[in-house]
């Protein structure tokens, strides 16, 4: 029995030992599993970019920061040094600066209290509308605003994370339009609006009043700018109350894109229009053709793209154009399409003899090119061939139908080679031929526009817009887009003669300058680079200079149609419609457009909307940096203003 008991004891001890070892193994496995789960959770929280605060994207390189408002400026601190964790975005929105772009021209009152919101919590009520068309456009534009907010939520993963600010509030947006029943952007469109936001229990009420769809859409844009994603709260926030009264200083606020030197797919054009809308620009000037290519496929003249496009994949079809026009229209933007003539034409016009139409153009790809044009290839239309004007009428008719713009047109009309026409018409003065062509092109345009000239037809500034030829042009219907230097006498002459003018000075608003010449090792025709500060500070209607002629010596101008202050010496009232930045594309291709154009064009947008006397002051840097962040959030690859450290510590960089 003792042996059996000893054996039993030894067996039990061994059994308990095995159980102990198993228990320890299970405990170790459980501990390892818990550690793995904790590590996995930590990695999900720290490595999943959409779920991390913006300031923590570079974990291991940057510490965790907080921002506090001191003396009306946001200062960065280590989170451990402050009892409050506040994101840079929220600090910027609440600390002194309005963060609106462009800066409103009327009274602005913004609360410093915030509440959380969700994109789907925004509801639209159309209180009054002058037409069903306007109501439909309002509903679609409102959904576009909400989609921009949804993008912010998706990027931050806000759908799955609770907010530190409590339950989200609904926002009831009420719109009242008392004015035009036409949703299109037109020369006489009243773009003014008023926005009033106020809290009512768990709901915010935003009242937007305007005189046009475009004005109400601007109100949506301003409303969206007082909504932002707080990465620390993982929620959209909105100011609790706001009042904004606003209207643009100039009625024409444009951006030109050249798609002939290099082709840009429709997606890049649509994204450019999105960025324009974010800054309340209203005219997309589409320089669609030039001597290098004719990428526009027209039903009325398919031979032009057939002979002039770079290839089948580098063509805009009528459906492409309609899609771009609709995209722009919903964002308060008109598409001003320019088929340049009589110069800047090329191989696209070389098919005339084979079609029994004779020579439609002369000097096509003539050599040496430097004797006939500013850059190769050369070519210009035949002013004595009546088939040219028949073709132009068909082209103009289709452009008006596609763009739905019938009160504004652009004929082109720049850099005609007198030598080319002199060789083919040695019995005529080339300048007289140029005047004759312009007159007949205008007649073709009137026929295309149902027998009525557009309210404003633009020409590029040129020798034709200088004396003694300027006086022979019809200032009632013709306007001039002035592209020369602001110090060139032609700028002053056009204004003094009473022509409605769109300013695109090469020494301020040409965005292609500063990249050298593509033909040789020189600096190019228009260096140096135009920074956003130079774009912003160019105010040719107010500058005064004791030097030679030019706009710099002029009295202040007032934008808008018939408005304007008289020039010195009793000159006629100056009529500046506004301005446009120009992006020519000899050295630009798809993929590089966004950073070349933005945020410089946004700087022009505020100059033309607000025209405040201040230059690129500290507040402008702060607001433009915020606007650039908005563009990036919408998929626009805008260039940075400065190092990211300066976004974190802006006042240390100013």
From TrEMBL:
EC number: 3.2.1.52
Active site: 415 (proton donor)
Segments forming domain Glycoside hydrolase family 20 catalytic: 250-611
Catalytic activity: Hydrolysis of terminal non-reducing N-acetyl-D-hexosamine residues in N-acetyl-beta-D-hexosaminides
GO biological process: chitin catabolic process; glycosaminoglycan metabolic process; polysaccharide catabolic process
GO cellular component: plasma membrane
Keyword Ribosomal protein among record annotations: no
EC top class named in words: hydrolase
UniProt-recorded Gene Ontology molecular function terms: beta-N-acetylglucosaminidase activity
UniProt keyword terms in alphabetical order: Carbohydrate metabolism, Chitin degradation, Glycoprotein, Glycosidase, Hydrolase, Polysaccharide degradation, Signal
Domain (Beta-hexosaminidase eukaryotic type N-terminal) ranges: 100-226
Native organism: Trichoplusia ni
Name of the protein in its database record: Beta-hexosaminidase
Entry similarity comment: Belongs to the glycosyl hydrolase 20 family.
Domain of life: Eukaryota
InterPro entries in the cross-refs: Beta_hexosaminidase_sua/sub (IPR025705), GH (IPR017853), Glyco_hydro_20_cat (IPR015883), Hex-like_dom2 (IPR029018), HEX_eukaryotic_N (IPR029019)
